[in-house]
Amino acid sequence: MKRxxxxxxxxxxxxxxxxxxxxxxxxxxxGLRVIGNYEPEDNLNCKDGKYAQGAEGGNTGTIHIxxxxxxxxxxxxxxxxxxxxxxxxxxMCLLCAELCLKYGIKITPKTILTHYEFDxxxxxxxxxxxxTFLPFLPDMKKNxxxxxxxxxxxxxxxxxxxxx
Length: 164
Fold this sequence. Notes:
By secondary structure, this protein is of the alpha/beta class. It has helices at 17-22, 86-103, 115-121, 142-163; strands at residues 3-8, 25-27, 33-35, 62-67, 112-114. Helices cover 32% and strands 13% of the residues. A five-stranded mixed beta sheet has the order 3-2-4-1-5. A hairpin with a 5-residue loop joins strand 2 and strand 3.
């Protein structure tokens, strides 16, 4: 595995049948981890059609994690009933740290990134908007969120390494 792409599902605080197909891991609004239909290793070979299809053009070797929510997101002033929250965000960062340790993934802008960053890096900015807004940090700009995630993941990784 070579990278982790972080998403929001665009749905409610609980996964639906499509979410299970597109993401390896989902974090509910309560901060609980839910396993998708595919193992991360299924994305080592995407030619058989049996893999999590979280990012067009970027599935091979990729682990997809989604925060369940943002169904009714319109903008930074109207993010709706199903806004992602800090509890699930922290759980996502912890899970990323665990996966980095398990698979030997380094924490860089090319290996731990949002779907928005993934598309932006490919010259397709604006195609996907997840994760471009954190309701619990409303003043954070969309171009700062990936760095914030990587810093959190690194913090959790250091804490996990202390326990080893």
